[in-house]
Structures are given as structure tokens and as C-alpha cells.
Amino acid sequence: MKKILYLVPILSLLTGCWDQSMLNQTKLITAGGFDYTKSGKVITTAAIPQAVAAEAGQRNTENQIFSASGFTARQSRLRLDRKVSERLEASKNQIIVFGEDAAKKISTTYWMFFIEILNRHLMQN
Question: Where is the secretion signal located (predicted)?
């Protein structure tokens, strides 16, 4: 019994942050959009803030716009991930825009896509 009493505090010291996401290894999506192309593919667009050179004491950021298309929202998101060197993180997304065609055809596919992103973010924290 005494061994267990000594073992529990020691084991609690061995825990740590093993699944953290470093900010310098990710790109934060602040706005995103979905629409359909004329051929019926889903096009995903993301705005990602990027720091640009400025004078001393000033902070300037510009949004970089990336787009990718695929047969599903997930496929277009995976293709979007491949266009950016860092890992895309949508947990800080502030705006989601649906094009007219996407709004008419909206289905659980889009909602499952966002739930998957939120679950991934919640599991990291």
C-alpha cells in the first residue's frame, strides 16, 4: 500500500504536453467559403492572415487567399492543405460564407465538415 502512495505522486510528475500544436507550424484560417463550380465540384476558399514587413513599431497583416476544388468538402479541404506549407487550423475561423449554389444544396456534409474541425480542435486542448 505504501508503494502505491509513493507511486501516484511520482507518476503525476511524468505527465506533460505531448499533443500540442505549435503556432509557428500552423496557419490560422480567419474566413472561409464554400461554393459549387459549374462542373459540380465543391470549391473551398480560405483567408489566412500573413504578417508583412512594416516600419518599426507598426504591425501590418495581409490576408492571403487560397482556393481548392474537389468532389466533396473534405476533398477540397485536403487539397487546400496541400497548397499551404504549414498545417491549416480552422479553429479561429470567424466567417463562413456559402455561395448561392452551396446555400441551396446545403446538406449535412458541410455541417459534418465543421464538426470534424471543432472536434479536432477540442481534442487538442
Answer: none
Cα separation, 44 vs 98, whole angstroms: 10
Nearest to 88 by CA among 42, 60, 121: 121
Domain ranges of the chain: 25-124
Pair 38, 19: CB distance under 8 Å: no
Structure confidence by residue, pLDDT tens digits, 78-100: 898 888 888 887 777 778 888 88
pTM of the model as a whole: 0.62
What would the DSSP string read from start to end of 16-65?
A: ---S---GGGEEE--EEEEEE-TTS-EEEEEEEEEEE---TT--EEEEEE
Q: Do you know the residue count of the chain?
A: 125
CA angle 74, 77, 83 (to 5 degrees): 150
